[in-house]
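An instance as discussed:

___
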Amino acid sequence: MPLMTTTFPGACLCGQVRFEITPPTKWCAHCHCTMCRRAHGAAFVTWIGVPEAQLELVAGRNTVQWYASSPDSRRGFCQHCGSSLFFRSERWPGEIHVARANVPGEIDREPDEEVHADTRAAWLHPSPERKASTG
């Protein structure tokens, strides 16, 4: 069933940076690399790959701060609340990666790949005897 939207809206935690993605997206994948894990403080990060022309910053263009995380890559975050939002690399010219967690609704695809699984966090899957916390 096709989505009934022409764009996928997203935002940072505080809402100062808002953006829209115009489909189709190129891909959606979970990244387990150590740099993504450290930048997001999470076991892995789910990214959406989009041609840069299909991402529009609706608000907060001057609030996005870019950090050179390696010689050929930059990570974009909200300088007000610290939300990690974007990733750009010379390895993928003309493409921007958007942190999936900042797009609250459905998009045109599910994650279908896991990259850098060889560096997956050993603690990602808790032991079965541990109980899930509700809050």
